[in-house]
Amino acid sequence: MTHFRPISIVAGLALAASVLAMNAHAAEPTVAPVAPAFPAEGKIKYVARDSILEFKALAEYHEPDWVNDKFVKTGKLPPLKERLPKEPLVYKTGNMPDGIGVYGDTMRHVIGGRPEGWNYGAGQTQGWGGIDIGLSECLTRTAPLFQVEAKDTEPLPNLARSWEWSPDGHKLTMHLIEGAKWSDGVAFNADDVMFYWDDEVVDPNVSPLNGATPETFGVGTTLKKIDDYTVEWTFKDAFPRQYLFAMAYGTFCPGPSHILKPQHPKYSKNTYDQFKNAFPPEYMNMPVMGAWVPVEYRPDDIIVMRRNPYYWKVDEKGNQLPYLNELHYKLSTWADRDVQAVAGSGDISNLEQPENFVASLKRAAQPDAPSRLAFGPRLIGYNLHMNFSANGWGNPDAREQAVRELNRNLDFRKAVTMALDRKATGESLVKGPFTAIYPGGLSSGTGFYDRQSTVYYPFDLAGAKAELAKAGLKDTDGDGIVNFPTGTAGGKDVEIVLLVNNDYGTDKSLAEGVIAQMEKLGIRVILNSLTGTQRDAANYAGRFDWMVMRNHTELSSVVQNTEQLAPVGPRTSWHHRAPENGQLDLMPFEQQLVDIVDKFMTTQDNDERTKLMKQYQKVYTENVNTVGLTEYPGALIINKRFSNIPQGTPIFMFNWAEDAIIRERVFVAADKQGKYELFPQQLPGKPGDSGPIN
Ligand code: GLA
């Protein structure tokens, strides 16, 4: 069924033949080509879900001696036992790759983002790269599930230590960890959970960082407090176990309501903007449930975090976690993260920009290399998203509206996808067996991927031009760029603005590749290159025609952020959201995707779910829901001095590696510890006070 023909012949035909005749010769869709073999180097050791952690009281608890000597004995901190919950979360030794650890040392991260502030629940980024992941503790946890067999992958308990379903499956009762405290010593309880839900998720004026909206948990879902440590969910559907994934990072990680609530407009005179900005990056010691607390911020230089003396997780010997006393986030660039991790001046990187693969591999292969580098499955992918809203999302002007109409035309989308030479695109990033031809849709690295269900429109420029003509676009003024039909957008040249995140070289290279290839097709693409934070804002507001975007977890895991697989709610899709009236103008194939995803969310049967995802992939790729650009594997780079790094940890699956490696369990053996702590023997101070305390 493959219809690869020499392009020169096709081009020759195109000159001579009529549009109709050309159509007859256009390359036929086929299945996605087999990707070049690229065996993951780190083999995952699969374990049973319940072998990872449990909640129980232990006979005794320990902490670093200096905490006891300097803070407990002097009355600055209550004794450890009083700071821990009755039954802390206990990591089982058997699941810790190198076993029980020792205290000390620092993990030095490098990040390309910059902090807007600490109000995660109101949508502020802290700069990514694992910084917010480390601050956030969520009801459930999914990142470590990469090591659990697919059939066993119910999310792990976390702030919600257990849960049970009502017999009819419409109610889910969750029991929160009892007696756990925020890093400033204030009790964590159901009020924190309810503040997040009522005043951040449900309040339409607030959107938490990773975009949780009520429909993330199902249309019509409600949540109520039963008592201080019990909350109850009510769902429209029976047993929608899928939503347990939405209760993990990044959509159900409550903030400290005792600090946030007094600033929220419902309980103060603040505007929503004032609430959002009430905790700027300079605000130190923001209370967290995570293992480290921000204590130092120097703009464009570094953010430093110190161990949380109230952290509620321990090892089986009763040692309070984390083992590492300090975390650094150097404020640099994403490319520099790779460079520093292989050079040894940084400790960890997700090697995800193929432009850095060769140099990093070379350095890591040397015997004296300070870090380990291991590739995982092909789970990093990029798509070109077209804005599908024709009913007002982002208030388009006449040209933008005309582009939206084109985006909604299948002939047009086919033209675009067929005009892309994906082999050349991949090789422009890195030569070798890394990149694969990716038509779009589910990543080939997920268990739900089925190649036979993946429709691929092969590269065929002449065929693409014929599709463009079918979409009604002709070059009426002979300048090489097709024009809108007379009457639409003044019959002008078709110009499309492409939104791209300029924090990453890869995003920029891919966007430039799209521009060059579209020019050959006869479409002028203009770059709108913004920082990651501005890009996200433009995306959420619907201010884009097209957008090059790295895939999120829904395409790499399917079960995480599943609602983002289709416009199942007014604000769940990346490229098709509703204007303020909440109405989505779905095309028929999008409605099909929505129906499939809705069914998937409420189906328990694994075979049925596999079948549904095959249908999803077929409808998605046949209709060019997004235009796939490339996909490739990423590698985790980590300094060799760290222990307890699970073998084969993918840099991205349910979440990023910073979550998947379970940093609170990571340690450095005593004889390998570096002298990197900037605030040795110090602990976080009071919220809002500058710096840590002695
Ligand atoms: C950025 C980086 C990723 C990862 C995430 C964590 O997106 O590019 O590699 O570190 O942050 O949120």
Automatic annotation (TrEMBL):
Residue ranges constituting the Solute-binding protein family domain according to the UniProt record: 155-554
Entries under Gene3D superfamilies matching the protein: Dipeptide-binding Protein, Domain 3, Periplasmic binding protein-like II
CDD domains: PBP2_NikA_DppA_OppA_like_4 (cd08500)
Keyword Signal: yes
Pfam family, one: SBP_bac_5
Gene Ontology cellular component list: ATP-binding cassette (ABC) transporter complex; outer membrane-bounded periplasmic space
Listed InterPro entries: SBP_5, SBP_5_dom
Localization: Periplasm
First and last residue of the signal peptide: 1-26
GO molecular function, one term: peptide transmembrane transporter activity
Biological process annotations from GO: peptide transport
Keyword annotations from UniProtKB, A to Z: Signal, Transport
Family statement drawn from the similarity comment of this UniProt entry: Belongs to the bacterial solute-binding protein 5 family.
UniProt protein name: Alpha-galactoside-binding protein
Species of origin: Rhizobium tubonense
